[in-house]
Amino acid sequence: MRVGDPPVGHVMVGVESADSGNSLVAVSTMLIDYGVPGIPVTEDGRYAGMVFEDDIVSALASGQGPETSALAICKPVPPVSGRGSTAEALRLMHSCGVAALAVTDDLGRVLGVVTASRLLATNDRYAKPKLVGGMATPGNVRLLGGGATGGAKNWELVMTGALMLLTFLAGNYLALAVSWFVPVDIRITDWYYSFHNFLSIAFFLVLLRLQPLAGYHAAEHMVVHAIEQNEPLELETVARMPRVHPRCGTNIAVAAGLFFGLLNLPVIPWEEVRLLLAFVVTLFGWRPIGSFIQSAFTTKPPNEVQLRAGIRAGRELLENYQTAKNASPPIHLRIWQSGILHAMAGSSLTASAAYAVLRVLPIPDYWKVI
Asked: 135: which strand partners?
């Protein structure tokens, strides 16, 4: 018998594990849904054993009821690492006399199940992270989840921050150009100051929409939707996915903008009223307004090149996740992988450079926006 070369993680079936408190009814449903001979059981998030079809038969035959917990009947079958060899998995199956093994990361978190048939056949059902996030760059897509990443390199994330800062400055200058034609006695009023800020944001959003970044942002969302809905990462399928995603950072930015914008609205003199208005509008409006901003400005229908970049990132993420060392990394690693620190570095460096240039240019202070 010849066993293939890929690591176990690349041939396993992505399944959810049963919790130690789940009943035999729940485990039976999982066996049917996933079509595997055994389901891993976890206790406190760590692998505890396997429940097979014959374990359920034995439990019921011995008088135990359907409400019996999975932990009570599971077998302490050793798991196999996602980075382990298929030959190692086959030997372990043979020595334990089982037809399936749990696949875990280095901390004992379940990634999936490998069966004897999967050791020989091509896998078409990758395990996937519980949550998938991402970031678009000017020419690529970064996706992350479960301690794995795929797509854009770190320097590309830095470029995203730089481009966002430059776009913000351009929006400010366009707003200043409009305000230049407004009489000074109007420009110095509180209400016009608020209008000017709104105008800057509006120009910023329009400029975002005009850039390729918006297409890559849409591709990122569409691939995440496809992964979450267990759809194949093929061009025709991903192209049907929605551009708007409920977990997009645009929604968080809209929530912050709504709250602090209304809280400091100068046309309402009463602070308590502004606070109440900001709270109510943000509570009920951040998601629908955020979805509108995504649809109208921060994403646009991607072209084929942008979609393929997102698909490559998605495939790379899933492939890397199959052999992840830690499927639930600590918060500092998640922040690093998300690219937010790289984007902040890019925007900070660009802001510093812009500040230095504006300080030496012989222009009025009115035009020094940073």
From this structure: 142
Distance of CA 295 to the CA centre of its chain: 18
User: Domains of the chain: which residue ranges?
Assistant: 8-119, 133-243+299-367
What b/e readout covers 284-308, taking b as 16+ CB neighbours within 10 angstroms? eebeebbbebbeebbbbebeeebbe
Note the pLDDT tens digit of each residue in 98-154: 999 999 998 999 999 999 888 776 555 677 888 899 999 999 999 999 889 999 999
- Predicted TM-score (pTM) of the model is 0.75
Encode pLDDT of 53-108 as tens digits: 999 999 999 999 999 999 999 999 999 998 888 888 999 999 999 999 999 998 99
Class of domain 8-119: alpha beta
Give Cα separations from 208 to 168, 212, 216 (angstroms): 9, 8, 11
Tokens of 83: 């980075």
Q: Are strands 100-104 and 18-19 parallel, antiparallel or unpaired?
A: unpaired
